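Study the following:
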Amino acid sequence: MKTEKIIEVKNLNKKFGTFTAVNAISFEVYKGEIFGFLGANGAGKTTAMKMLIGISKPSSGEAWVAGYEVQNNTEKVKKSIGYMSQKFSLYNDLTVQENIAFFGGIYGLSNTQIKHKTAQLLLALSLEDKANELVGNLPLGWKQKLAFSVALLHDPKIVFLDEPTGGVDPITRRQFWEMIYAQAHKGTTIFVTTHYMDEAEYCDRVSIMVDGKIAALDTPKNLKQHYQARSMNEVFLQLARKKNNS
């Protein structure tokens, strides 16, 4: 059982005018854990993640990421994490090698480190012959794997993945999750948002967001037992029905 807290959230809120996008959520994530942040599109997942990575200011509440209080230590938080957005965070008009060098520079790596990491990454992804290829010409699955690897360039304690497998085929999705497992095995914490309920089965624990609130949080096994469900999709449907009937 993982016990070292690396993310701690207390009564976090985000309002846009009179609309409450994230409503008093509280949870903890442990070192080396694969933590799934699930919910339908518009449930508040991405808004909550943006607060945790320091690019959106909470309306109220508190959050600590990698030991730093988010509101007052934004830059320290950003240096301690990796981030992969829904659009894969890469520049299509730069080559594979140029993207790696660009983000390596942003993460503060030296030229020697960038050179070493580039060779290491290209070899690991079997992209040596694509080093000078524009990223925009790569298949979606390769972009996805490259973006994940680039988010890990500076050996962050936590990687935030926002809907990382959207639009890719099932085989590529499975390969991507194998990369996630391998990284978590090294001690990196993975915080992943998704609306694919089957992906919840791959997580150590999952939080399910419904209309800005955390409706359930536990291991997939415990949630299925509690809701007498055969799949996480059934759990989610029960929670959605419960919300609609309340």
About this structure: The chain has one domain: 5-245. Strands lie at 5-16, 19-30, 34-39, 60-65, 68-69, 81-84, 158-162, 189-194, 205-210, 213-218.
